[in-house]
Specification:
Largest sheet: 8 strands, mixed
Strand content: 5-15%
CATH class of the largest domain: Alpha Beta
Structural class: alpha/beta
CATH architecture of the largest domain: 3-Layer(aba) Sandwich
Number of helices: 15
Number of strands: 13
GO molecular function, one term: succinyldiaminopimelate transaminase activity
Protein name: Succinyldiaminopimelate transaminase
Distance between the termini: 51 Å
Number of domains: 2
Strand order of the largest sheet: 2-9-8-7-6-3-4-5
Radius of gyration: 21 Å
EC number: 2.6.1.17
Low-confidence stretches: none
CATH superfamily of the largest domain: Type I PLP-dependent aspartate aminotransferase-like (Major domain)
Pfam family, one: Aminotran_1_2
Keywords: Aminotransferase, Transferase
Mean pLDDT: 96
Length: about 400
């Protein structure tokens, strides 16, 4: 077996299962989970219809192997969406590729980018982070370096804290904007700083933007390609953005997204994917094409999240350190120091007393010399319907009051 597998950490949800092992939740309350970021709004009917129609089509069904690069029409849909959403022009054939969800692409891109012959290779990850970044780096033979988020700057990554020798060894840098779990959006000045570092040291930037269409305040979040274009980097050198339909269109089970950016990197990535065997099924391509071409369902989906955050956040702000995020569907909440307990203990108490599941923030981050930036915080995914999220908020508030009264 590949010895690098031994370096992988348990996934946060396995750690959560172990944390709750042997605990008995309040049997008088129905379970509510805010622990997993899985969209639970209804899939648009027209997307399902496009999938069904293609499945039963003689030309789009399952009777032939699909091309790894997808159909020209699908790649044109990607390019049209990028133009509509970000005002940028890309070459659909050379600068876009379909992927089976951003998670698969994040992992695969890392394997394609990192040089296996360089034992000093570093992959920079935001901290807290999506654990695929770390696992992909480790299995590629690189060393992850964790760049802590700064609560004083709305959880923006502190790029200035990364030592020069790390930048010199970096081959890939992950950006997640809007962030998981913090919801922070990276502004143009931060992108400019990162591009300058990439030019100096030659690393590739992977911009994970799967939460870009869920926002509630002001303008839509700035994207990586958009930032590059505004700064005159229209070739998108050393930059690949990754996005997905899972959150935007409520189709997590379809596993559909795309990557776009530097044509030189995507040419090599396509070669890798040809061997990787990850072509998108024709019915999924047809449904994806339909989804990328419609914005009405995206606006309706965004409104549902806006309503939830508008009603839930004030309730939780009474008892936790929490505020409306820039974007995304998570609340990143701090536990009151007066309770005298860490995030794992609070998660246990909440589960037992109120039958509500949340994810301890420390499970989403790694310890660094400056500490674990997720310690003392909770990630709550507001993916259920409004009433269920409201009930969960009231139960969390009750739990905090119970613990204060002890």
């Amino acid at each position: 077996m590949n010895p690098r597998l031994d370096s992988l950490h348990p996934y946060p949800f396995e750690r959560l299962r172990q944390l709750f092992a042997g605990l008995a939740p309040n049997p008088q309350l129905r379970p509510i989970s805010l622990g997993i970021g899985e969209p639970r709004h209804a899939t648009p009917a027209f997307v399902l219809q496009a999938y069904t129609d293609a499945l039963h089509s003689a030309t789009q069904g399952l009777a032939s192997y699909p091309a790894t690069a997808g159909t020209p029409a699908l790649r044109q849909a990607f390019a049209a969406w990028l133009q509509q959403r970000y005002g940028i022009a890309v070459d659909a054939d050379r600068q876009t590729l379909p992927v089976n969800g951003s998670r698969e692409a994040l992992f695969a891109l890392t394997q394609a980018v990192v040089n296996p012959g360089n034992p000093q290779a570093v992959v920079v990850c935001p901290n807290p982070f999506y654990q695929i970044y770390e696992g992909a780096a480790l299995l590629a033979g690189a060393t992850p370096h964790y760049a802590n988020s700064d609560p004083a700057r709305n959880f923006a990554v502190d790029w200035d804290a990364i030592p020069e020798d790390v930048w010199q060894r970096a081959e890939l840098v992950f950006v997640c904007s809007p962030g998981n779990p913090t919801g922070a959006v990276m502004p143009l000045a931060e992108w400019q700083k990162l591009f300058a570092l990439s030019d100096r040291h030659g690393f590739v930037i992977a911009s994970d933007e799967c939460y870009s269409e869920i926002y509630f305040q002001g303008e839509a979040p700035l994207g990586g390609l958009q930032a590059a274009s505004q700064l005159g980097r229209t070739d998108f050198r050393n930059l690949v953005m990754l996005t997905s339909l899972s959150k935007r269109s409520n189709v997590p089970g379809m596993r559909s997204g795309f990557v776009a950016g530097d044509a030189r990197i995507l040419q090599q990535f396509l070669l890798y994917r040809t061997y990787h065997g990850c072509a998108m099924a024709p019915p999924v391509q047809a449904a994806s094409l339909a989804a990328w071409g419609d914005e009405a369902h995206v606006a309706a989906n965004r409104e549902l999240y806006r309503q939830k955050f508008e009603q839930v956040t004030p309730i939780l702000a009474e008892v936790l350190d929490v505020a409306l995020p820039d974007a995304g569907f998570y609340l990143w909440a701090g536990i009151p120091a007066a309770l005298g307990m860490d995030d794992t203990r609070f998660a246990q108490e909440l589960y037992v007393r109120q039958h509500v599941t949340v994810l301890p923030g420390s499970y989403l981050a790694r310890a660094t010399p400056a500490g674990n930036p997720g310690a003392g915080r909770l990630r709550m995914a507001l993916v259920a319907e409004v009433d269920e999220c409201l009930e969960a908020a009231h139960r969390i508030a009750s739990c905090v009051e119970q613990l204060r009264g002890q």
